[in-house]
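Much of our argument rests on the idea that a fold can be written as discrete symbols. The amino acid sequence and the backbone structure tokens for this protein are reproduced below:

___
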Amino acid sequence: MANFNKVLLMGNLTRDPEVRYTPKGTAVAELGIAVNRIYSGENGEKREEVTFVDVTVWGRTAENVGEYLKKGRPVFIEGRLQLDSWEDKTSGQKRNKLKVVADNVQFLGSPRGGAGGASGGEPDEGEEAPRSRPSGGGRSSAPPKNTPPSPPDDDDIPF
């Protein structure tokens, strides 16, 4: 039997992304999004249902997410489902959590919360707008090569 694990979500960030680094220096960002569903109830009254989803982003995309996204910003996420299992240290019970591991994150709207395109709209003063990925097969979220890199926070970074 064939297997297929693909998730497409569009929603708003519920909190600012938290970016950390593995011991080998790989960036990992944890974020939460709220996905709304509007439907009509039995009596025709409109109702809204909200689903909260935890998302993990890796690599350069994680760094971009941490730099450009804030709570409330709309995003489109393409990724896969992953089930994490662990034993609760306090109660000893087995715990499970289903989350999304993002392969691609597209920034929607503008940094100030207005409506805009996938490029992120107009940046705040002193901030550069994120670039959207080309509609071709490219998956890189890195800025163009002519953009100078940010100065490293730590002298141990090899570039």
